[in-house]
Amino acid sequence: MKRQRTVYEAAIESGVSRRDFLKMCTALAATLGLEYSQSKQVVHAMENGSRVPVVWLQFQDCTGCSESFIRSSQPKVESVLLDMISLEYTEVLSAASGQQVEDNMKQVLKDYKGKYILAVEGSIPEDDYLAVGGKSAKETLREMAEDAMAVVAYGSCSSWGGIPGANPNPTGAKPVTGFINDTPVILVPGCPPIAEVMTGVIAHIITFGKLPELDVFGRPKAFYRHRIHDKCNRRAYFDAGLFVESFDDEGAKQGYCLYKVGCKGPTTYNSCAEMRWNGGVSYPIQSGNPCIGCSEKDFWDNGPFYTRRAKIPGTQTTINPDAVGLGVVGLATAGVAVHAAGTVVKKKLDDKRGENE
Amino acid sequence: MGAPKLPWIRSGSIPASKAGLNSENSYHPEEQIIYTTMEKDVKVYVWDLPVRLYHWINAVCIVILMVTGIYIGKPFAAASIPEEAYYSNLMGWARYIHFFTAFVFTAAFIYRMFWCFAGNKFARFNPLRLLFWKDLWETIKFYLFLKNKKPHFMGHNPLAFLSYWIFNYLGSAIIILTGFYMYAEPQKQSVLGKLFAWVPYIFGDSYSLRSWHHLVAWAFMLFIVLHVYLAFRDDYLERCGSISSMFTGYKTEPKHAVGEEHDK
Question: Could you say which of A305, A332, A337, B66 has the lowest number of CB atoms within 10 Å?
Fold first, then answer.
């Protein structure tokens, strides 16, 4: 087997100048949330590290995550695909197909044991609803995950179960973490995740040779440490108490806070408000649509997108908490009134009997 | 009248000094009940000052927290100056008052938890005794207008105790934990953030946490309705001054309740 080219060599060979290479590294450092002084580290990693083999598996998905991935602008997807990683298996982008490409996947297991990254898109059914190349999804995942350096779960489906896992979950869909115990898993939820976040996670692994720091749910802290609400460009209107009441009112035109039309920003961890989409052009809230919380667990079941609700703990049912609360208190008050009347009547009767005795 | 008899104690076997035996009077028998004798009845010192203080601080906090909390969950009023966010801070103030009150609420709660150990026998309870559950059953029958052998309780009856522990103390714990987690959510790396970083393991993600917080708040409202009604009902039936006792600490009780001989 020939020596693997480093990322730098691959970049220079494909016609990138040293100057542009340094620019790319600096931008990458910024994307990763590093300080400017740390961009040296990125350059060093790119000059010495070889391309990381990646196997990209797709299960119960819509290919939306792949679509998002190829729109990465910083680092550019070309530089990721051609310079930083060596994409060994993918259903969307590979030219080869059938036996050829399946064999290549087997080859990865032999050549790069414990060194490749397994990217997973889509949830995995507990029952055998899905088979690729004659093998059930569960089997393929377990086989490929066993010797992987890490598993990156791209998208809400592979991170939480997503839309296939939404109530009533006909296929018994489960996230990656439902099948893998021994290999470290990085969750990159979102429907789809932001392109730069997807490439950024891989870039982090290449730069530092280790997995990024994860939060309690297993998401990289660099991209999921803040809620949309914390960094929202409409936050000032929230604090002021200026809210959009309906999508055609004056507030909507003025760009007021979308909290009352069901914005899930306060409960959603993602980088949309900072990194934005399509190379930093905009994101849903900036465009006037409330956040639907697509990177959160069970987002599809967390109630209507345009209403504020609360979930009954332990279920996937959402209710209007104030209406239900008022109803319960109202019923209790009515019950109290009846009980009070009963108490008075009983006391009067008891007193009368006491007098008679 | 005389002391109500419990079914498993043969009549006449209770000495006068133990009259009115129930789960509460027999709890910590070494502790004397403080009372002053009046013409016909006795005035029993039931609620310590810290318990009364906690009660009213807690009550005021709950009202403030509920009003601001409902506003935060579903803003029912908009800022009066439109267009520019710069001039108003309505939600900001609602949140600020909510947070400030929450700290007071939490401090009062911690103090009351301490008083569950340090307080007088009416501030404590022991659910591990059979007598407690028998009294509880009699109390439920009493509230359902059924024939019952409920003894007279000077402090809380067992059902009241249980409701405080479930609604008030467990509810407070849930609402404090989820609340402080949310309070520290934007600064997870802060001390407060790290202190409550484990809360999602129990209550789930941000959305579930909020749902817990919101629904438990309504459970508090349900509790208030029942609690206020039953306090007035107790005063009406027993004429023991339940309502005023939460201000003065004293309840008016018949003499046999503290073991004194009847004048009759």
Answer: A337
Q: Which of A34-48, A208-222, B24-38, B140-154 has the lowest mean pLDDT?
A: B24-38
Task: State which residue of chain B sits closest to A333, comparing Cα positions.
Answer: B225
Among 3.40.50.700, 2.60.40.1530, 2.40.440.10, 3.30.70.360, name the CATH number for the domain at A7-223.
Answer: 3.40.50.700
Tell me the average confidence (pLDDT) per consecutive run of 10 residues in chain B, 264 residues long: 41 43 64 74 83 93 96 90 88 96 95 85 75 81 80 79 87 95 90 91 90 94 93 85 85 71 50
User: How far is the alpha carbon of A126 from chain B, nearest alpha carbon, in Å?
Assistant: 23
Neighbours of B113 (CB within 10 A): 13
Per the structure, the count of domains in chain B is 1
Q: Do B78 and A243 touch (CB under 8 A)?
A: yes
Is the whole-model pTM more than 0.90?
A: no
Do B207 and A293 count as a contact with CB atoms less than 8 A apart? yes
CATH class of A226-308: few secondary structures
Are the Cβ atoms of B205 and A296 closer than 8 angstroms? Answer: yes
Could you tell me if the ipTM is greater than 0.90?
A: no
Average pLDDT, stretch A151-177?
92
